[in-house]
Amino acid sequence: MHRLPGLLFISALFFAGCSAPSPDSRKVFNINLEQGLTSLDPAFARNQFAIWMDNQLYNGLVQVDDDLKTVPAIAKSWELSPDGKRYTFHLRKDVYFHDDPLFRNGKGRRVTGPDFVYSFGRIIDPLVASSGGWIFNGKVSGKEAFAAPNDSTFIVNLRNPFPPFLSMLTAQYCSVVPHEVADHYGKDLRSHPVGTGPFKFKYWKEGEILVLLKNENYWEKDKNGNRLPYLDAVKASFISDKQTAFMEFLKNNLDFFNSLDGSFRDDLLTKSGRPTKKYAGKFRMITNPFLNTEYLGMLVDTSFSIVKNSPLKDIRIRKAINYAIDKKKLVKYLRNSIGSPGHSGFVPKGMPGFNADSVSGYSYNPEKARELLAAAGYPNGKNMPPVLLQTSTTYKDLIEFVQGELAAIGINCRVEVNQTSSLRDLIAKNSVNFFRGSWIADYPDAENYLSVFYSKNYVPVGPNYTSFKNKQFDALFEKAYFVTNDEERFRLYRKMDNIVMDQAPVVVLFYDQLFNLYQNNISGYSVNAENLLILKRIKKK
Q1: With contact defined as beta carbons under 8 Å apart, do 146 and 158 qualify?
Q2: What whole-number distance in Å separates Cα of residue 181 and Cα of residue 505?
Q3: pLDDT digit string (tens) for 90-99?
Q4: Number of folded domains that form the chain
């Protein structure tokens, strides 16, 4: 693999058109984005690596702390009207966009209320076709819902009360962008990002390298009054092979690593999830609950021809698949205990209000699986048409495990491996009947997970990739909009989760766990269940 001379390359970029301290003092944080990037436009922050990079480049009204509490960002304070439908945000006056030639004299201007009117309107603009448009779906009545009576005030008028609204605004989709830049570049904003974040865009050669430089004018400071960030630059590589990337980490060419792969998993971790003796003390390993549910999705709307002609239209078959997979075994041997078996609902461990005992999922029960197959007319899988499971290359070993588990009860499961972007497009078009998916929290409220099954969120409008539709579920989902008491709302969430599990449009494989490796000279990292990769407080010795 062709490699670039990292520090020299960064130094050359840093010196191009800007003043800088000596290269000897350069603090460059090196990471790898194994699945690549498709966009640096926050309107398309739909996967983990895009979220990571957008989190360095942009800010929104609010942000989350390490405890997943919503705290101020560009909005220094806010009020909610007595009817719960009008949010008034008061903006800081010291937040500026990154410098760009499209601004007067090339200098970034101050962020104002109209910038949020523009940015939020852009999310729901069908011409932009943001993958985050579903966030506001049914909650606002078009762009007129957003207003800025003056430069330091921004108002959102909701159609109905929506208690998780502040949490929702922490999603990277809700970042502020300047209209001058977004209008000028249009779709090309993906490769010309201009935000307000701790780092500013410098260079991106797709599939090879991304460079972000320190924003010298960033508005946040540490508790001692020192301006953030501490780092001078972030350099991302795009090594798709996990073993190769891990070797780069071991050579100290990467400061951070967060992938597990069968090629080195047992060398790195014991089956109980601890570092092996070989690596004890060589780097820091951080684990924590991570709001990510790994699952298998099944299209269930029989109006689609691929569902009409599939055995997966039968709820008994879908339940049989749920019972057939030994999730404890999967987590122990394929994840080396990084994660928790998916024995509860779709909402993951670590989410506020999560209660595994209140949602009935599926534990390993091959006999029950066989009974359901027989009841569906396929004793031991006899005469059952094969099912095609679509996955990406990253999860090939996991899907091969699933394939073996299904074969054990008589289900002939064929596997088709696609590139991640291709599979995502197929799923978004309802072109696959059985697929592997992940749902990483956009914001820390269970509503975010349950919205995946709301009938008004059918693709392409929203993320209902299984085309699940249930009147009782929809009624509870809409009722939760009006419930301001957290415990009562959590109770409704658990009812909805139980409905989903009973109808089985998904197989919850496991709830993920944050697994981050840092070199010993790195400090200041944050540990949060959204795994946001917060680099503004990172220090590198």
Answers
A1: no
A2: 42
A3: 999 999 999 9
A4: 2
